[in-house]
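User: New here, any thoughts?
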Amino acid sequence: MKSFSTLIFIAISMISTAQIKVTSGSIKRFENFSSEFVDARNVDVWLPDGYSEKEKYAVLYMHDGQMLFDEDLSWNKHVWEVDETAGKLIAAAKTKKFIVVGIWNNGLKRHGEYFPQKAYEKLTAEQQQFVSNNLIERGIIGTNFNVTSDNYLKFLVTELKPFIDKTFSTKTDSANTFIAGSSMGGLISLYAICEYPKVFGGAACLSTHWTGIYQLENNPIPETFYAYLKTHLPDPKNHKIYFDYGDQTLDALYRNLQRKVDGIMEAKGYRATNWVTKFFPGKDHSEAAWRERLDIPLQFLLGK
């Protein structure tokens, strides 16, 4: 097994000199970041204008890293433009100063890395086969659904976070460590704060894909998610969780499911100071929609 120092060397030795287009701040890319738990992948770290080693910064980890900054890197030429929104908020002193760590997804393995594993393992073998068949039919996965989100989180927590904290000038405590994503990225963000509540102090889950697959009928997944949340939600006294959804395209599936999650949140003691669920009528399941409202979860999690 590689030592942490070896992993540091491997990552540093693969810093790319390629230019990534941003409108605010700058990007440092670590190509093919090595891991003992998951396949190597690119990691893009956004630093705000004026970044200085003399200051300490909060850290926001975001999934689907190739969809965050530069449209030329994305499969559909649409991105969140995180650099622009984050830069404006920091410049206006609407949030504390922070950096963003964009972790690239792994293509056909994305669904398995982002699907909450402990909830999935509560499904029967027949239910798991139903899930796998649905994803195969939609072309989301190859020939087998392998859920590896526990290993993905180990990569984030035991390999990537120590590297980020060693390489950049960060505040390392949970009160300054956040995680965010959309769709399946919303699921894995929620799973991360539930599994590692001492690491992450807040999670933003946009258009959370509560269905797990692409239908509501005969779908066992939402119920297993609800059961997991009832026993694993972190303490509301020192955690913040943000949800949102629209009502077009895939988001049209989420309204009733999100309302059930909201009931669980309330029963667990979450209130307006540490939990927000927002509904955006007319908005769909897209980077354009998430880009429009990204300032809201950023201010909720990182506001001064």
Q: What stands out?
A: DSSP finds eleven helices and eight strands in the chain. The longest helix spans residues 149-167.
